[in-house]
Specification:
Length: about 70
């Protein structure tokens, strides 16, 4: 979708290759859509806590978050 509510159009210089919609891989389910965990506190050493917000369980699609 574009900002006007219609279908987005690709420009003539756009290259679409090796994306999951190009290879027939189904879109994986998200582990969590609950954003509240993203607002949690940092660990005492300042690092971010491990959360599952907007991550996928499938290892065949996308990048890992570790």
């Amino acid at each position: 979708m574009n900002n006007r509510g219609g279908q987005a159009e690709l420009g003539s210089s756009t290259v679409s290759a090796a994306d999951n919609w190009d290879s027939g891989v189904p879109t994986p389910a998200l582990r969590s859509k609950d954003a509240t965990t993203a607002y949690g506190p940092r660990w005492p050493d300042g690092s971010l806590p491990a959360i599952t917000f907007l991550t996928v369980a499938a290892t065949a699609v996308g990048a890992t978050t570790n």
